[in-house]
Design brief:
Aminopeptidase, Alpha-Beta Plaits, nine-stranded mixed sheet, protease, alpha+beta, metalloprotease
Length: about 375
């Protein structure tokens, strides 16, 4: 049985530990202590030493060996970092709802996921519930580009499947589809000239970029696919033909082939405009993360569906246009669904979560572990 007050007290404790992206050290040390006290083998990887992560804190990977259970080893994950403003959080508990004092975020994204995992582990140990082995991964840098998950020490991961607790839907939401995303950064190089005296001697980089963008398919392309040009900067003064402009955009789709086709189209249109107007285009494309595309009858989904029903929670299979650590895990061959936690108005000072959702999250995680014993890989 989940200890509701212990669960809520731990949530209130954790949200008061500052952990904005890049500053997860204090929280990581606390979580390592908690996991070790629960009997898990705890390891911190070297994600913090990578230039692209830029932090001193690594991901936490904790392992609990099987204790006689016959089900598959499962991974449960949540991220440690929060967005800003996330320093000096003062939680308020009133009428079954937990908020911040109003001048910061709350940090339910993703400490609601963390406490659900921790409380489930406690009950698991207290009641000697059999399981086929568990791994817990608490990542850094999720809010700044899934950086911790991308730099995770995957050679330490033994679980073939798992669950990330980081979606905003209610407990019972099981995200089985999410997009592949590509980002694009293009620098258009034209030629400077005096705009009033000799504009014909210049090549206007902004005009080149504008022509390329005008010929792009941008926005909602179909039910699965979107694209966007989000940043553009360049030019020096109105009396100078701009020599250089930088454009940043993205393409994403639940269908990986569509995402790739769209980013290729965007690159092609910029290159075509540069060629037509005599400019140069230097374009970089990065695949930010892979898609989640789990079949409704895949093993982790079947386990989650049955677990929800067994504790009286109505499950539903969903899709999202956003990315999470679950995308990265799936790209590494770990079949991961992203579970709803009931966190609301995240990334704002109006963020809140209900005590009922905190309780149901822990109940759901615990029941998933128990239910997995009825399945074989």
């Amino acid at each position: 049985m989940i200890n509701t007050e212990r669960l809520i007290d731990e949530f209130l404790e954790l949200v008061q530990v500052d952990s904005e992206s890049g500053s997860e050290r204090q929280l990581a040390d606390l979580l390592k202590e908690k996991l070790s006290a629960l009997g898990l083998d705890v390891f911190e990887d070297e994600a913090g030493s990578y230039v692209e992560v830029g932090q001193r804190t690594g991901n936490i990977i904790a392992t609990l060996p099987a204790n006689g259970g016959q089900g598959p080893m499962l991974l449960f994950s949540a991220h440690m970092d929060t967005v800003k403003p996330g320093q000096g959080i003062k939680p308020r508990r009133q009428g079954g709802v937990i908020t911040s004092s109003g001048d910061t975020i709350l940090g339910a994204d993703d400490k609601a996921g963390i406490v659900a995992i921790l409380e489930s582990l406690r009950v698991l140990q207290e009641q000697s519930i059999p399981h086929g082995g568990l791994q817990v991964v608490f990542t850094v840098g999720e809010e700044i580009g899934l950086k911790g998950a991308k730099a995770l020490a995957y050679d330490r991961i033994q679980a073939p499947m798992g669950f990330v607790l980081d979606s905003g839907g209610p407990t019972g939401e099981i995200i089985i589809k999410a997009p592949t995303q590509y980002s694009m950064k293009a620098t258009i190089k034209g030629k400077a000239a005096h705009a009033g005296i000799a504009p014909e001697e210049g090549i206007n980089a902004i005009v080149v970029a504008a022509r390329g963008i005008a010929n792009m398919r941008v926005g909602r392309l179909d039910e699965e696919t979107t694209s966007n040009i989000g940043l553009i900067s360049g030019g020096v003064a109105t009396n100078i033909v701009p020599e250089q402009v930088t454009i940043e955009g993205e393409a994403r789709s639940i269908d990986p082939a569509k995402a790739k086709a769209q980013i290729d189209h965007m690159v092609e249109e910029l290159q075509k405009a540069a060629d037509q107007l005599g400019a140069k285009a230097e374009i970089t494309v990065v695949k930010e993360y892979d898609s989640i595309n789990l079949a409704p009858d895949s093993l982790p989904v079947r386990i989650a569906l049955q677990a929800a029903e067994q504790i009286g929670i109505k499950p539903y299979l969903g899709k999202t246009g956003g990315g999470s650590d679950a995308n990265v895990f799936n790209g590494q061959g770990i079949a991961c669904a992203n579970l709803g936690t009931g966190m609301s108005k995240v990334h704002t000072t109006e963020e809140f979560i209900t005590e009922e959702n905190l309780l149901n999250n822990a109940r759901f995680v615990l029941e998933i572990i128990k239910t997995a014993q009825e399945f074989q890989e």
